[in-house]
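Fold in tokens:
===
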Amino acid sequence: MQILVLNSGSSSIKFQLFQMPEAKVVCSGMVERIGLENTKISYNTDTNKIEKVDSIDNHKDGLQLIASYLMSKEVGVIQSASEIQVVGHRVVHGGSTFTGTVEITEEVKQKIEKLSVLAPLHNPANLQGILVSEEIFPVAKQVAVFDTAFHQTIPVEAYRYAIPNVFLEENKIRVYGFHGTSHKYVSGKAIEFLKKEKSKIITIHLGNGCSMTAVKNGKSIDHTLGFAPMNGLIMGTRSGDIDPAVIFYMVNSLGYSLDEVNILLQKESGMLGLTGYSDLRDIESEAEKGNADCRLALKMNAYRIKKFIGSYASVMNGLDAIVFTAGIGENSDVIRALVCESQEFLGIQLDKEKNGIRSKEARDISLPSSKVKILVIPTNEEVEIANQSFELLSN
């Protein structure tokens, strides 16, 4: 079975074509910095490696470009669209409607669209991926794997908000959690690494969107993102945690509309609001040049992560490992060093030399004396989506 996996993020599309059930990667690639200058495109097979810079304005154009590479006479891996039997899609918000992987129907698409109000940077891009792939691969079955599914094990004391009960009972307002496919994958790899099923792990997913999960004995028990993917950590364009009183002040005293505040907090805040840049690579580069705003933003970013490490270590009554993953977590030695600085009380001791080594392999970057393992584990949401899609359609 050939399964194409599409992982549409807020500003990127990752893709991999798998031969299942062996999960052999036929090709892979990424379109990143969508909507920004100098969109980066990569496409890799056993015999070809293409990297180029182009201008891609939106996710639809990015998906059509990916399809053109897959079926290219020069570098393609399939001759026709009919060779793709399944397309597996990452969908960010499943609400209380979707608690597991599903085959996509018209009803499923309608529900994903309705949930877009809760994940406006993601669900529309996810749905666009579904619609475009239905056009390009009309024979293939379309499958949705939801980021929220892994967090269904969060206990009631952690997922409820302290607001009148009716809002949970009738409106389903609660913590849902996100990046679940990534957190599930890397926490599983961390458990394998630690060789202990009963474990207390904090997974730290850092990309344009960021989140952390407390994973106890393989299950999510708390998570930084909540009802929608905009609270918790400081992100590329999202503010993360903010006092709700600020929103009322902006509306009632500064004259902003609720829509304007929503756009500001989702698309104009975070690292972009602090520095003028949303891509951490640009921020680190400017910080090295002495840009004070960028230096402060890096410190603020790390400080927020450290607060949640302390919180989750307390909730789990201990800590075996912290795991850095996703684009920033895997590649930014600067952020990892700032996060692990002055954490001796918790038993976190970073090996600075190991931290500076760039690698695509899972690795331990802690000192031998560190009581808590510091792991860098590349996420692979795509293989997780492929496995779940295959399992669904094989039963």
Observations:
- The first helix runs from residue 59 to 70.
- DSSP finds 15 helices and 14 strands in the chain.
- The longest strand covers residues 24-32.
- Residues 206 and 326 are 5 Å apart (CA to CA).
